[in-house]
């Protein structure tokens, strides 16, 4: 049974407890910290978008189509559907001569409420460009078009070749799966498989392997030269354009705005968090058992504070999040539970 990582207080009494598991690993696979069952496969969901974007750069597709920092950062994003995100995703597709119709991620309303309210007031409808995964999918289509250009002597048109790119057997998804396997050291074709919210395959992988993958992406150690260069380029792009990875007031964006290339971090649905701390050579993967996102953010903030040896108010504001009611009155807080605090103690 996994230990409690985060506690929720109402007043001074514990109201809720969030159990989970945490793995911190270096690029050689040596374990820095392990809490709970780090070998139990979990679905990392969107926390692995950096890994899924590796073929975009490693294949040469990003260079072929002239993708800039913002566009590469969006390929790693779970964005809020704000106008800048939508325009950037549309811009990537325009470079391919395509429109939002090429996206196979589905239509989703923006998660940022003021944007959503504004669209409704103006009578606007959401499109696949508003989907939080539209940048990742635009990147997949870039890879497909790049592949098709190489096969054009066989009469393959890029748009036709890209169609159905979300299917596990499509050449694009095979490249994505190969990148995941290479980074984690796990043959994902033998792992439990599901379908993600954006319709691509998602694989259940151990936290230990996910942390290893992010340590490798932070250091380049253990990756092929092409994937090491791709990981570095993507991290650099995210450091330049962190807004694209999340959006206004989003945790990932705020942390990477503050820390630049020192931290790459990414939330995933159902309480998953993955991160790379390149200067320390460490990768982090955690999962909150009940899927609570705010608990995952609190746990990662506590981990980052401890590893970076900082009392930064931004990170502490999440690891010890103050809870307020609708009148703005403080009613409670989050805090790292004893097991997590002890594991992170110097």
What does this structure look like?
The protein is of the alpha+beta class and 346 residues long. It has a single domain, classed as Beta-lactamase. Helices cover 42% and strands 18% of the residues. The chain is built from 15 helices and 12 strands. Strands 1, 2, 3, 8, 9, 10, 11 and 12 form an 8-stranded antiparallel sheet that branches. Strands 4-7 form a two-stranded antiparallel ribbon. A hairpin with a 5-residue loop joins strand 11 (322-324) and strand 12. Helix 5 (83-95) packs parallel to helix 7 (134-150), helix 9 (171-184) packs across helix 10 and helix 10 (207-219) crosses helix 11. The longest helix has 17 residues, at 134-150. It comes from Roseateles saccharophilus. This is L-asparaginase II.
């Amino acid at each position: 049974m996994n230990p409690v990582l985060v506690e929720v207080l109402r007043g001074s009494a514990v109201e809720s407890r969030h159990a989970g598991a945490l793995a911190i690993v270096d690029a050689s696979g040596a374990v820095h910290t392990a809490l709970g069952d780090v070998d139990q496969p979990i679905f990392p969901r969107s926390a692995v978008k950096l890994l899924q974007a590796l073929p975009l750069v490693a294949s040469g597709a990003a260079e072929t189509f002239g993708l800039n920092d913002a566009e590469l950062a969006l390929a790693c994003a779970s964005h809020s559907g704000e106008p800048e995100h939508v325009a950037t995703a549309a811009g990537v597709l325009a470079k391919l001569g395509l429109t939002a119709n090429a996206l196979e991620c589905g239509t989703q309303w923006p998660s940022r409420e003021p944007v959503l309210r504004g669209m409704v007031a103006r009578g606007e409808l959401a499109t696949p460009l508003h989907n939080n995964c539209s940048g990742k999918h635009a990147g997949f289509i870039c890879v497909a078009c790049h592949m098709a250009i190489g096969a054009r002597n066989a009469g393959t048109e890029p748009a036709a070749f890209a169609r159905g790119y979300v299917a596990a057997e499509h050449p694009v998804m095979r490249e994505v799966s190969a990148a995941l396997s290479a980074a984690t050291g796990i043959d994902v074709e033998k792992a439990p498989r599901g379908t993600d919210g954006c319709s691509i395959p998602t694989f259940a992988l151990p936290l230990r392997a996910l942390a290893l993958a992010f340590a490798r992406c932070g250091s380049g150690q253990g990756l092929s030269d092409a994937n090491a260069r791709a990981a570095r380029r993507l991290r650099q792009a995210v450091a330049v354009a962190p807004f694209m990875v999340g959006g206004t007031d989003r945790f990932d964006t705020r942390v990477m705005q503050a820390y630049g290339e020192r931290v790459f971090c990414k939330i995933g649905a159902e309480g998953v968090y993955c991160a790379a701390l390149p200067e320390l050579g460490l990768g982090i993967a955690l999962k909150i058992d009940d899927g609570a996102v705010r608990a995952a953010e609190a746990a990662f903030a506590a981990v980052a504070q401890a590893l970076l040896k900082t009392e930064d108010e931004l990170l502490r504001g999440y690891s010890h999040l103050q809870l307020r009611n609708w009148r703005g009155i403080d009613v409670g807080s989050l805090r790292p539970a004893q097991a997590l605090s002890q594991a992170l103690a110097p």
